[in-house]
Give the backbone structure.
Amino acid sequence: MTADLLKALIAAGLPCTHLEVEGDGRHWQATLVSTVFEGQRAIARHQRVYATLGDRMKTDEVHALSIKAFTPAEWTALAA
């Protein structure tokens, strides 16, 4: 798994206005901004991201993924 492939997989399943993926090939960090997260708690947001990866999480193709998921308003507030 590469950062570009992981980013493409997430982007294909979620409409993101901002998406960063970093990692070492096994341990990944993703920062996402999407309107689909509005009204969702953190666990639901993470589950939504995991769903875009399907079995890749279960088969250890993606060993670990740390997620920071924001709505556009939350992201804007962070930048202020």
